[in-house]
Amino acid sequence: MAGFQLAFSNHFKKIGLPVPQILAHDETMQYFLLQDLGDTHLLTLVIDGLTEKVKDYYRQVINDLVRFQTKGIKGLDMKAAYPVKTFDKRSVFWDLNYFKYYFVKPHELLFDEGELENDFNALANRLLEADSGFFQYRDFQARNIMIYNEHPWYIDFQGGRKGPLQYDLASLLYQARAGLPQSFRDELYRLYLEHLEKAIPGQAKKFEKYFADFIYFRLMQVLGAYGFRGLIQRKSHFLKSIPPAIGNLKQLNDTSSVEKKYPELYRIFMQITQLNQYEEQDIPAGKLTVSINSFSYKKTGYPADTTENGGGFVFDCRALPNPGRIKELQDFTGLERPVIEYFQDKSEVNRFMTETFKIVKQSIESYLERGFTHLQVDFGCTGGKHRSVYCARQLSDFINMKYNALVEVRLRHIDLEKEKN
């Protein structure tokens, strides 16, 4: 890996592409001092609003992308590329399995392993049919485009390799957090084809043939990344990116023929579009919102916190008496009278709730005093149906009664909602 930054940067700089200059490096080429491009990237600007100036930046970026892909590959020393030098079947399967193991399986989506493997092979073969003699930037998206001196500059091309064109444009146009409207995507797509046709006559038609497949492939790759960074590493930025990525997938499913080409993938995609636990919370300004969730440790795991807090209290209810083991109570939930009366007669449950009230009350009063706006409290049990549901409801009632208009309570029973759907 050492040296790729120097080789790539010097090459791009030499042919006039706007990348940061390397000012110095150590003898091992593990540490570099780069030109400071400030802290404004294109994603920040587009989230604030798709103004005409931001649109102009995107139009310039499209032109630069074609230059990176077609001119940037000429004379580029690919020996420095890391972790792979070319876009090949093995690297395609890395991304497909990233999606499978970090997004599909953690959400317990239903699929047939053999049929999914068939679809993975079909998609990989399809992607590898595309012309592959270009520089593939790999992570060409607005967060890696700095705006410096009123012009776009480009960073984080360390995953670059020799590969097809379509992946980078899909990365830019379908970036989840950017939320580009389809009309502007269409404009940028046409502009890209114009620049590409000028650079390599006849290439635009070949590009169009495979573009839709690369959009799906890129979305699968980023969902895998969001699953790993968000669900495993609990980083709120990636959790926040899941809802718009699902929105992109939903829009594509309505307009493409993926059901016929990749039926098992389509089955998974349809289940993904029905996930609702990542909906970004609209937190009222100036008021404390307490989000209370019940969940199943075995089925859904810890609920995501899409706010900047990154999570809050998680209370394990599995040490409490379990009505799920009592035949007469199995079909009821923690919201129904037979189970409620069962818990009310248990002194250990009452002690558990009393201590929970004390702990959460301390945080609520501190948060109110300090002007905080969000607290999340989660209750988990084995199935997410009895103990966690009862406890979440009890806390909700307690907070509503004690704090009334001072606190807004949002109560969700994640696994009960999942069963209804």
Describe the structure concisely.
With 421 residues, the protein is α/β, with parallel strands linked by helices. It has 15 helices and ten strands.
Q: How do the helices and strands line up, and which of them pair or pack?
A:
Layout: H1 4-14, E1 22-25, E2 32-34, H2 42-48, H3 52-70, H4 89-104, H5 113-129, E3 134-136, E4 145-148, E5 151-154, E6 161-163, H6 166-173, H7 182-199, H8 203-232, H9 236-255, H10 258-261, H11 263-272, E7 288-296, E8 313-316, H12 337-344, H13 347-370, E9 374-381, H14 387-403, E10 407-413, H15 414-420
Question: What would your notes on this structure say?
Answer:
This protein is α/β, with parallel strands linked by helices and 421 residues long. It folds into two domains: 4-272, Aminoglycoside phosphotransferase (APH), C-terminal lobe (Aminoglycoside 3'-phosphotransferase, Chain: A, domain 2), CATH 3.90.1200.10; 288-420, no CATH class. The protein has helices at residues 4-14, 42-48, 52-70, 89-104, 113-129, 166-173, 182-199, 203-232, 236-255, 258-261, 263-272, 337-344, 347-370, 387-403, 414-420; strands at 22-25, 32-34, 134-136, 145-148, 151-154, 161-163, 288-296, 313-316, 374-381, 407-413. A hairpin with a 2-residue loop joins strand 4 and strand 5. The radius of gyration is 25 Å and the shape is elongated.
